[in-house]
Amino acid sequence: STVPVNVTVTGAAGQIGYALLFRIASGQMLGPDVRVRLKMLEIPQGVKAAEGTAMELEDCAFPLLAGIDIYDDATQAFDGVNVGLLVGARPRGAGMERGDLLAANGGIFGPQGEAINAGAADDVRILVVGNPANTNALIASAHAPDVPADRFNAMMRLDHNRALAQLALRTGAPVSEISRVTIWGNHSAKQHPDITHALVGGRPAAEVVGDDAWVKGEFVPTVAKRGAAIIDARGASSAASAANAAISHVHDWVLGTPKDDWTSVAMPSDGSYDVPEGLVSSFPASSEGGRWEIVQGLELDDYTRAGIDASVAELVEERDAVKELGLL
Ligand code: NAX
Protein backbone atom coordinates (compact mmCIF):
# COMPACT_ATOMS: atom_id res chain seq x y z
CA SER A 1 0.00 0.00 0.00
CA THR A 2 1.13 3.57 -0.45
CA VAL A 3 -0.26 5.23 2.68
CA PRO A 4 1.84 4.21 5.70
CA VAL A 5 0.14 2.84 8.80
CA ASN A 6 0.82 4.95 11.89
CA VAL A 7 2.09 2.73 14.69
CA THR A 8 2.51 4.36 18.10
CA VAL A 9 4.74 2.56 20.60
CA THR A 10 4.89 3.83 24.17
CA GLY A 11 7.82 2.93 26.39
CA ALA A 12 9.81 2.86 23.17
CA ALA A 13 13.18 3.08 24.95
CA GLY A 14 12.45 0.15 27.27
CA GLN A 15 13.55 -3.43 26.82
CA ILE A 16 10.32 -4.62 25.17
CA GLY A 17 10.39 -1.54 22.93
CA TYR A 18 13.87 -2.45 21.78
CA ALA A 19 12.76 -5.98 20.90
CA LEU A 20 9.56 -4.74 19.25
CA LEU A 21 10.37 -1.78 17.02
CA PHE A 22 12.68 -3.57 14.60
CA ARG A 23 10.17 -6.32 14.00
CA ILE A 24 7.39 -3.81 13.32
CA ALA A 25 9.61 -1.90 10.91
CA SER A 26 10.62 -5.10 9.12
CA GLY A 27 7.01 -5.93 8.30
CA GLN A 28 6.48 -8.85 10.63
CA MET A 29 3.49 -7.25 12.36
CA LEU A 30 1.38 -5.92 9.49
CA GLY A 31 2.75 -7.89 6.57
CA PRO A 32 5.44 -7.58 3.93
CA ASP A 33 3.58 -5.04 1.77
CA VAL A 34 2.53 -2.53 4.40
CA ARG A 35 4.60 0.58 5.05
CA VAL A 36 4.73 1.83 8.63
CA ARG A 37 5.44 5.13 10.27
CA LEU A 38 6.74 4.71 13.81
CA LYS A 39 5.64 7.16 16.46
CA MET A 40 7.65 6.54 19.60
CA LEU A 41 6.42 7.91 22.93
CA GLU A 42 8.68 8.17 25.96
CA ILE A 43 8.90 10.17 29.13
CA PRO A 44 11.44 13.02 28.85
CA GLN A 45 14.19 10.96 30.53
CA GLY A 46 13.69 8.24 27.92
CA VAL A 47 13.85 10.41 24.83
CA LYS A 48 17.63 10.29 24.34
CA ALA A 49 17.70 6.50 24.44
CA ALA A 50 14.74 6.45 22.03
CA GLU A 51 16.75 8.64 19.68
CA GLY A 52 19.52 6.06 19.78
CA THR A 53 17.06 3.31 18.89
CA ALA A 54 15.74 5.49 16.06
CA MET A 55 19.29 5.82 14.70
CA GLU A 56 19.61 2.04 14.68
CA LEU A 57 16.23 1.72 12.96
CA GLU A 58 17.50 4.08 10.24
CA ASP A 59 20.64 1.98 9.95
CA CYS A 60 18.55 -1.08 9.14
CA ALA A 61 17.36 0.68 5.97
CA PHE A 62 14.04 -1.15 6.21
CA PRO A 63 12.21 -0.73 2.89
CA LEU A 64 8.84 -0.55 4.69
CA LEU A 65 9.81 2.10 7.24
CA ALA A 66 8.26 5.35 6.08
CA GLY A 67 9.37 7.53 8.99
CA ILE A 68 10.18 7.77 12.68
CA ASP A 69 9.06 10.41 15.13
CA ILE A 70 9.84 10.63 18.84
CA TYR A 71 7.57 12.37 21.32
CA ASP A 72 7.28 13.04 25.01
CA ASP A 73 3.71 14.22 24.54
CA ALA A 74 0.88 11.71 24.26
CA THR A 75 -1.46 13.94 22.23
CA GLN A 76 1.14 14.25 19.47
CA ALA A 77 2.20 10.62 19.68
CA PHE A 78 -1.35 9.34 19.19
CA ASP A 79 -2.36 11.82 16.51
CA GLY A 80 -3.51 9.72 13.54
CA VAL A 81 -2.68 6.44 15.26
CA ASN A 82 -3.87 3.26 13.52
CA VAL A 83 -2.14 0.75 15.79
CA GLY A 84 -1.08 1.64 19.32
CA LEU A 85 1.13 -0.57 21.45
CA LEU A 86 0.96 0.70 25.01
CA VAL A 87 4.07 -0.77 26.57
CA GLY A 88 5.36 1.96 28.87
CA ALA A 89 4.02 1.65 32.39
CA ARG A 90 4.98 2.32 35.95
CA PRO A 91 6.59 -0.76 37.51
CA ARG A 92 5.94 -1.66 41.11
CA GLY A 93 8.67 -0.04 43.19
CA ALA A 94 9.94 -1.16 46.58
CA GLY A 95 7.30 -0.68 49.25
CA MET A 96 4.64 0.28 46.73
CA GLU A 97 1.15 -0.92 47.63
CA ARG A 98 -1.19 -2.21 44.96
CA GLY A 99 -3.32 0.91 45.26
CA ASP A 100 -0.23 3.08 44.60
CA LEU A 101 0.58 0.99 41.54
CA LEU A 102 -2.95 1.29 40.15
CA ALA A 103 -2.97 5.03 40.82
CA ALA A 104 0.43 5.59 39.16
CA ASN A 105 -0.68 3.68 36.07
CA GLY A 106 -4.03 5.42 36.03
CA GLY A 107 -2.02 8.62 35.74
CA ILE A 108 -0.46 7.22 32.55
CA PHE A 109 -3.30 5.34 30.89
CA GLY A 110 -6.04 7.89 31.59
CA PRO A 111 -4.30 10.71 29.71
CA GLN A 112 -3.19 8.31 26.96
CA GLY A 113 -6.82 7.24 26.54
CA GLU A 114 -7.77 10.90 26.17
CA ALA A 115 -5.04 11.41 23.59
CA ILE A 116 -6.29 8.38 21.66
CA ASN A 117 -9.83 9.71 21.83
CA ALA A 118 -8.67 13.05 20.46
CA GLY A 119 -6.47 11.90 17.61
CA ALA A 120 -6.92 8.27 16.66
CA ALA A 121 -7.79 7.14 13.15
CA ASP A 122 -11.20 5.50 12.64
CA ASP A 123 -9.69 2.03 12.41
CA VAL A 124 -7.54 2.39 15.55
CA ARG A 125 -6.54 -0.76 17.43
CA ILE A 126 -4.89 -0.50 20.83
CA LEU A 127 -2.97 -3.29 22.54
CA VAL A 128 -2.02 -2.68 26.16
CA VAL A 129 1.11 -4.53 27.26
CA GLY A 130 2.17 -2.46 30.29
CA ASN A 131 1.02 -3.95 33.58
CA PRO A 132 -1.46 -4.29 35.13
CA ALA A 133 -2.41 -4.66 31.46
CA ASN A 134 -6.10 -5.59 31.73
CA THR A 135 -6.97 -2.80 34.10
CA ASN A 136 -4.77 -0.28 32.26
CA ALA A 137 -6.75 -1.13 29.11
CA LEU A 138 -10.00 -0.58 31.01
CA ILE A 139 -8.77 2.83 32.17
CA ALA A 140 -7.58 3.89 28.70
CA SER A 141 -10.87 2.78 27.13
CA ALA A 142 -12.90 4.64 29.76
CA HIS A 143 -11.05 7.83 28.77
CA ALA A 144 -11.74 7.28 25.07
CA PRO A 145 -15.56 7.35 24.89
CA ASP A 146 -15.58 7.98 21.12
CA VAL A 147 -13.53 4.85 20.37
CA PRO A 148 -15.45 1.55 20.42
CA ALA A 149 -14.43 -0.35 23.56
CA ASP A 150 -13.60 -3.46 21.54
CA ARG A 151 -10.64 -1.59 20.01
CA PHE A 152 -8.88 -1.89 23.37
CA ASN A 153 -7.16 -5.20 24.05
CA ALA A 154 -4.75 -6.32 26.73
CA MET A 155 -2.04 -8.81 25.89
CA MET A 156 -2.48 -12.45 26.87
CA ARG A 157 -0.58 -13.83 23.91
CA LEU A 158 2.62 -14.36 25.85
CA ASP A 159 0.74 -16.51 28.36
CA HIS A 160 -0.94 -18.30 25.46
CA ASN A 161 2.41 -19.02 23.80
CA ARG A 162 3.89 -20.19 27.08
CA ALA A 163 1.03 -22.69 27.37
CA LEU A 164 1.61 -23.94 23.81
CA ALA A 165 5.31 -24.36 24.55
CA GLN A 166 4.77 -26.29 27.79
CA LEU A 167 2.28 -28.59 26.10
CA ALA A 168 4.68 -29.18 23.22
CA LEU A 169 7.52 -29.99 25.65
CA ARG A 170 5.36 -32.43 27.56
CA THR A 171 3.85 -34.26 24.59
CA GLY A 172 6.79 -34.09 22.21
CA ALA A 173 4.48 -32.69 19.53
CA PRO A 174 5.60 -29.65 17.60
CA VAL A 175 3.81 -26.40 18.44
CA SER A 176 2.36 -26.43 14.94
CA GLU A 177 0.37 -29.56 15.85
CA ILE A 178 -1.24 -27.95 18.91
CA SER A 179 -4.42 -25.88 18.76
CA ARG A 180 -7.31 -24.54 20.84
CA VAL A 181 -5.41 -23.70 24.00
CA THR A 182 -7.02 -20.93 26.06
CA ILE A 183 -5.88 -18.54 28.76
CA TRP A 184 -8.81 -17.10 30.70
CA GLY A 185 -9.06 -14.04 32.90
CA ASN A 186 -6.33 -11.69 34.07
CA HIS A 187 -2.71 -11.39 32.92
CA SER A 188 -1.41 -12.26 36.38
CA ALA A 189 -0.45 -15.33 38.36
CA LYS A 190 -4.22 -15.87 38.76
CA GLN A 191 -4.78 -16.44 35.04
CA HIS A 192 -6.41 -19.74 34.13
CA PRO A 193 -4.56 -21.76 31.44
CA ASP A 194 -6.96 -24.31 29.94
CA ILE A 195 -6.29 -27.33 27.72
CA THR A 196 -9.68 -29.00 28.09
CA HIS A 197 -10.55 -28.19 24.46
CA ALA A 198 -7.01 -28.29 23.11
CA LEU A 199 -5.94 -30.68 20.38
CA VAL A 200 -2.53 -32.27 19.94
CA GLY A 201 -2.09 -33.81 16.53
CA GLY A 202 -5.88 -33.79 16.18
CA ARG A 203 -6.44 -35.72 19.44
CA PRO A 204 -7.76 -34.26 22.71
CA ALA A 205 -4.76 -32.86 24.60
CA ALA A 206 -5.96 -34.29 27.92
CA GLU A 207 -5.96 -37.76 26.36
CA VAL A 208 -2.49 -37.32 24.87
CA VAL A 209 -1.13 -36.03 28.18
CA GLY A 210 -3.01 -38.74 30.06
CA ASP A 211 -2.25 -37.27 33.48
CA ASP A 212 -4.65 -34.83 35.06
CA ALA A 213 -2.28 -34.36 38.00
CA TRP A 214 0.32 -32.96 35.60
CA VAL A 215 -2.19 -30.51 34.14
CA LYS A 216 -3.27 -29.14 37.52
CA GLY A 217 -0.04 -29.55 39.45
CA GLU A 218 2.58 -28.70 36.80
CA PHE A 219 1.18 -27.18 33.64
CA VAL A 220 -1.12 -24.55 35.14
CA PRO A 221 1.35 -23.20 37.74
CA THR A 222 4.30 -23.33 35.33
CA VAL A 223 2.47 -21.19 32.77
CA ALA A 224 0.99 -18.84 35.36
CA LYS A 225 4.33 -18.27 37.12
CA ARG A 226 6.54 -18.25 34.05
CA GLY A 227 7.05 -14.49 34.20
CA ALA A 228 8.56 -14.78 37.68
CA ALA A 229 10.74 -17.72 36.58
CA ILE A 230 12.14 -15.63 33.70
CA ILE A 231 12.97 -12.76 36.07
CA ASP A 232 14.68 -15.25 38.37
CA ALA A 233 16.80 -16.70 35.58
CA ARG A 234 17.51 -13.62 33.49
CA GLY A 235 17.60 -10.93 36.14
CA ALA A 236 15.15 -8.99 33.96
CA SER A 237 11.58 -9.52 32.90
CA SER A 238 10.53 -11.15 29.63
CA ALA A 239 11.27 -8.83 26.74
CA ALA A 240 11.84 -10.58 23.39
CA SER A 241 9.07 -13.08 24.09
CA ALA A 242 6.74 -10.26 25.11
CA ALA A 243 7.56 -8.32 21.95
CA ASN A 244 7.03 -11.48 19.88
CA ALA A 245 3.62 -11.94 21.48
CA ALA A 246 2.63 -8.34 20.74
CA ILE A 247 3.65 -8.76 17.10
CA SER A 248 1.55 -11.93 16.80
CA HIS A 249 -1.44 -10.41 18.59
CA VAL A 250 -1.68 -7.41 16.26
CA HIS A 251 -0.85 -9.54 13.22
CA ASP A 252 -3.75 -11.86 13.93
CA TRP A 253 -6.12 -9.05 14.90
CA VAL A 254 -5.58 -7.35 11.55
CA LEU A 255 -4.91 -10.33 9.29
CA GLY A 256 -6.93 -13.13 10.93
CA THR A 257 -6.37 -16.35 12.84
CA PRO A 258 -5.98 -19.74 11.18
CA LYS A 259 -9.21 -21.61 10.54
CA ASP A 260 -10.02 -24.22 13.21
CA ASP A 261 -7.81 -22.55 15.79
CA TRP A 262 -8.08 -19.64 18.20
CA THR A 263 -5.86 -17.55 20.43
CA SER A 264 -6.27 -15.78 23.76
CA VAL A 265 -7.25 -12.13 23.89
CA ALA A 266 -8.18 -9.86 26.78
CA MET A 267 -11.01 -7.62 25.58
CA PRO A 268 -14.06 -5.99 27.11
CA SER A 269 -16.46 -8.75 28.11
CA ASP A 270 -19.86 -8.88 26.42
CA GLY A 271 -21.03 -11.17 29.22
CA SER A 272 -19.81 -14.34 27.52
CA TYR A 273 -19.06 -17.19 29.93
CA ASP A 274 -20.66 -15.13 32.71
CA VAL A 275 -17.72 -12.72 32.85
CA PRO A 276 -19.19 -9.38 34.00
CA GLU A 277 -19.79 -7.07 31.07
CA GLY A 278 -17.08 -4.49 30.43
CA LEU A 279 -14.26 -6.20 32.34
CA VAL A 280 -11.17 -6.57 30.15
CA SER A 281 -10.77 -10.31 30.56
CA SER A 282 -9.13 -12.99 28.45
CA PHE A 283 -11.23 -15.24 26.24
CA PRO A 284 -10.61 -17.72 23.46
CA ALA A 285 -10.94 -15.60 20.33
CA SER A 286 -10.66 -15.88 16.59
CA SER A 287 -10.27 -13.02 14.17
CA GLU A 288 -11.81 -12.44 10.78
CA GLY A 289 -12.17 -9.23 8.84
CA GLY A 290 -10.13 -7.34 11.41
CA ARG A 291 -12.38 -8.13 14.37
CA TRP A 292 -12.14 -10.54 17.28
CA GLU A 293 -14.99 -12.91 17.96
CA ILE A 294 -15.14 -14.69 21.30
CA VAL A 295 -15.35 -18.44 20.68
CA GLN A 296 -18.77 -19.41 21.99
CA GLY A 297 -20.29 -22.54 23.42
CA LEU A 298 -17.27 -24.20 25.05
CA GLU A 299 -18.29 -26.45 27.87
CA LEU A 300 -16.56 -25.59 31.13
CA ASP A 301 -15.84 -28.30 33.68
CA ASP A 302 -15.82 -27.45 37.40
CA TYR A 303 -12.05 -26.93 37.52
CA THR A 304 -12.11 -24.51 34.59
CA ARG A 305 -15.16 -22.65 35.93
CA ALA A 306 -13.47 -22.20 39.32
CA GLY A 307 -10.24 -21.03 37.65
CA ILE A 308 -12.08 -18.44 35.56
CA ASP A 309 -14.10 -17.24 38.54
CA ALA A 310 -10.98 -16.74 40.68
CA SER A 311 -9.22 -14.78 37.95
CA VAL A 312 -12.30 -12.68 37.19
CA ALA A 313 -12.70 -11.93 40.91
CA GLU A 314 -9.23 -10.38 40.82
CA LEU A 315 -10.23 -8.24 37.83
CA VAL A 316 -13.36 -7.10 39.66
CA GLU A 317 -11.19 -6.09 42.63
CA GLU A 318 -8.85 -4.12 40.39
CA ARG A 319 -11.77 -2.41 38.68
CA ASP A 320 -13.37 -1.49 41.99
CA ALA A 321 -10.04 -0.15 43.26
CA VAL A 322 -9.49 2.12 40.24
CA LYS A 323 -13.12 3.21 40.38
CA GLU A 324 -12.62 4.21 43.98
CA LEU A 325 -9.51 6.16 42.97
CA GLY A 326 -11.63 8.06 40.44
CA LEU A 327 -9.71 6.61 37.47
CA LEU A 328 -12.72 5.26 35.56
P1 NAX B 1 11.17 -1.11 30.80
O1 NAX B 1 11.23 -0.52 32.16
O2 NAX B 1 12.41 -1.66 30.20
O3 NAX B 1 10.62 -0.02 29.78
C1 NAX B 1 9.49 0.75 30.05
C2 NAX B 1 9.68 2.07 29.33
O4 NAX B 1 8.47 2.80 29.45
C3 NAX B 1 10.80 2.94 29.91
O5 NAX B 1 11.68 3.32 28.88
C4 NAX B 1 10.04 4.13 30.47
O6 NAX B 1 10.78 5.35 30.36
C5 NAX B 1 8.80 4.16 29.60
N1 NAX B 1 7.67 4.86 30.17
C6 NAX B 1 7.26 4.92 31.46
N2 NAX B 1 6.19 5.70 31.58
C7 NAX B 1 5.88 6.12 30.33
C8 NAX B 1 4.86 6.96 29.81
N3 NAX B 1 3.96 7.54 30.62
N4 NAX B 1 4.83 7.17 28.49
C9 NAX B 1 5.74 6.62 27.69
N5 NAX B 1 6.75 5.84 28.12
C10 NAX B 1 6.80 5.58 29.43
O7 NAX B 1 10.01 -2.19 30.85
P2 NAX B 1 9.74 -3.40 29.83
O8 NAX B 1 10.50 -4.57 30.25
O9 NAX B 1 9.88 -2.90 28.43
O10 NAX B 1 8.19 -3.70 30.16
C11 NAX B 1 7.17 -2.79 29.87
C12 NAX B 1 5.87 -3.22 30.50
O11 NAX B 1 5.44 -4.46 29.97
C13 NAX B 1 5.91 -3.42 32.00
O12 NAX B 1 4.76 -2.82 32.58
C14 NAX B 1 5.84 -4.91 32.16
O13 NAX B 1 5.29 -5.29 33.40
C15 NAX B 1 4.95 -5.27 31.01
N6 NAX B 1 4.94 -6.67 30.58
C16 NAX B 1 3.77 -7.20 30.17
C17 NAX B 1 3.65 -8.48 29.68
C18 NAX B 1 2.34 -9.03 29.20
O14 NAX B 1 2.32 -10.22 28.86
N7 NAX B 1 1.24 -8.29 29.15
C19 NAX B 1 4.83 -9.37 29.63
C20 NAX B 1 6.13 -8.65 29.67
C21 NAX B 1 6.17 -7.44 30.58
O15 NAX B 1 6.42 -7.87 31.89
TrEMBL record:
Residues 6-145 form the Lactate/malate dehydrogenase N-terminal domain. CDD domains: MDH_chloroplast-like. It holds the Pfam family Ldh_1_N. InterPro entries: L-lactate/malate_DH, Lactate/malate_DH_C, Lactate/malate_DH_N, Lactate_DH/Glyco_Ohase_4_C, Malate_DH_type2, NAD(P)-bd_dom_sf. GO terms for molecular function: L-malate dehydrogenase (NAD+) activity. Substrate binds at residues 92, 98, 131, 162. It comes from the Bacteria. It is an enzyme of class 1 (oxidoreductase). Its EC number is 1.1.1.37. The active site is at residue 187. Keywords: NAD, Oxidoreductase, Tricarboxylic acid cycle. One of its GO terms (biological process) is malate metabolic process. NAD(+) binds at residues 11-17, 105, 112, 129-131. Belongs to the LDH/MDH superfamily. MDH type 2 family. Catalyzes the reversible oxidation of malate to oxaloacetate. This is Malate dehydrogenase. It comes from Demequina capsici. The gene is mdh.
